[in-house]
Write a structure and sequence with these properties.
The chain is built from five helices and six strands, in the order βαβαβαβαβαβ. It has a single domain (6-120, 152-159), classed as Spore Coat Polysaccharide Biosynthesis Protein SpsA, Chain A. Helix 1 packs parallel to helix 2 (46-53). A six-stranded mixed sheet has the order 3-2-1-4-6-5, with helices on both faces. The chain is α/β, with parallel strands linked by helices. Helix content is 35%, strand content 19%. It has helices at residues 22-29, 46-53, 66-81, 100-105, 127-144; strands at residues 9-15, 34-40, 56-60, 85-88, 114-116, 156-159. The protein is globular and about 40 Å long.
């Protein structure tokens, strides 16, 4: 399998009050797939900025949480585009959209169903985020017997069939 073309990739971006970064995230992600932003009840101009940047933007009437926004985006992507792959990308520029091809490259192996990226834990990450991530990473390892260095990462890719 060669790298998927952008028509085979749906990029789902959940967003809540991200007007300062969403335009740039969408612009940088667009070369790699069809961008779907799910505005999760933002009270700022997230929706307007996402549309202006060229994303398909869905609006939740109120803040239902990241999980609900991701579900809405995936359901839309599967129904509208029938993609081969779905990429999840946070709206706050924690993850460079230019890394999307690196995630998708793992799907060269037909047995790979999910690729989970992780962030570097350094002093730039707020202390509360580091502590929370350490807690959930440890809990995940205890419950599932697998070590994922950043279980809270918002940068993942999955085969649509999964």
């Amino acid at each position: 399998m060669q790298d998927p073309d952008r028509e085979q990739v749906a990029i789902v971006i959940p967003a809540y009050n991200e007007e300062k970064t969403i335009y740039e995230v969408v612009q940088r992600a667009r070369p790699y797939g069809r961008v779907i932003v799910v505005d999760d009840g933002s009270r700022d101009q997230t929706f307007r900025e996402a549309v202006k940047a060229g994303a398909v933007c869905l609006k939740q009437p109120l803040n239902l949480g990241k999980g609900a926004a991701l579900k809405t985006g995936v359901e839309f992507a599967l129904e509208k585009y029938q993609p081969g792959f779905i990429v999840f990308l946070d709206a706050d520029l924690q993850h460079p959209p230019e890394e999307i091809p690196k995630l998708l490259a793992y799907f060269q192996d037909p047995d790979v169903m999910l690729v989970h990226a992780y962030r570097a834990f350094n002093k730039n990450m707020p202390l509360d985020m580091r502590i929370g991530n350490i807690f959930f990473t440890t809990l995940s390892r205890i419950l599932f017997g697998r070590y994922l260095p950043d279980v809270l990462s918002g940068f993942k890719a999955i085969r649509a069939e999964a």
